[in-house]
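Hey team,

Filing this mostly as a record. A colleague (T.K.) asked me to run one chain through the structure pipeline before their review meeting, and I want the input and output archived in the tracker in case anyone asks later how it was produced. No errors, nothing strange. Just documentation.

Input sequence:
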Amino acid sequence: MIVKGSAAKRFRQSEKRRIRNKAVRSHVRSSEKKVLAAVESKDGPEAEKAFREYVKLIDTAAGKGVFHQNTVGRKKSRIARKVNAVQA
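Output structure:
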């Protein structure tokens, strides 16, 4: 790709961010799967521990702009309901 000046820099920056965001999204999804697996196995303490880790990861991702804040709130709410149902 042949671009000049500031366009080349923007391209480099966006490519770097795309790769970083992809890694963050992947890590969040893996963490989400751990929580849901613990919920499926009806393991309350493990689900709670995995949920706390998931919340930390997804909030950090939202802070970096990888996920929109409303998306994060919706995801946390839905998974929290499942974790609470296991503990009840």
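Quick notes for T.K.: The CA atoms of residues 21 and 66 lie 6 Å apart. The chain has three helices and no strands.
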